[in-house]
Amino acid sequence: MWLLIGYLVVINSIGFVIMGIDKAKARRQKWRISEKTLFATAILGGSLGIWSGMYIFRHKTKHWYFVVGIPVILILEILLVVMCIVK
Q1: CB of 5 within 8 A of CB of 46?
Q2: Consecutive 10-residue runs of the chain (87 residues): their mean pLDDT?
Q3: Which of 2, 11, 38, 84 is most buried, most CB within 10 Å of its CB?
Q4: 60, 37 in Cβ contact below 8 A?
């Protein structure tokens, strides 16, 4: 259980940080982090970090596939964690 919590803290921290990095790079018109990488991080358990980064950094909030996709992934991950805890 503690291993799962530790993993989720780390992957969500990474998700949050990479959203901030990508926003900073977007402002300076530099090489960007791919959307595929952002979604992969969300799917690997970092959806809460990606979602919070979206709104704190105001990044990717005009892209419908982020506005819809990231919360859907987050809900599915919450259900998965609850199912693991209940068993």
Answers
A1: no
A2: 91 98 95 96 97 96 95 95 83
A3: 38
A4: no
